[in-house]
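quick one if you have a minute, typing this from the bus. theres a chain ive been looking at and ive put its sequence and its fold in token form underneath. please have a look and point out which stretches look like helix strand or loop to you. anything you notice is useful, everything is just below.

***
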Amino acid sequence: MLKASERFSRRQRRTRFALRQAANGRPRLSVFRSGKHIYGQIIDDEAGRTLVAASTLEQPLRGELKTGADMAAAQRVGKLLAEKARAAGVESVVFDRGGYKYHGRVKALAEAAREGGLTF
């Protein structure tokens, strides 16, 4: 029987493999959520570098959010990430939910990024 962390790792690898097949050179919007914060970054896998990153730990968000672990925080991070991506010239990405369900904070971040102008 597999541990929960091993099952999560398998789901993450399976998701990333499918994304590499469908990416067509587009960068990847990767999401990580912890118990206290949520992080998003846009990664260029071909060059192996992060183009844009945003999280609830950043200074403008940290002062205005009550906590970094709720839906409102995820929406703010998604909007901030989309603004930074547009400034960096990124319009289209592939969404990498990692091993998480597309639900709750992960879904809120994705929808806010879409509203901010990213297409995926």
User: Anything to note?
Assistant: The domain at 4-115 is CATH 3.30.420.100 (Nucleotidyltransferase; domain 5). The chain is about 45% helix and 20% strand.
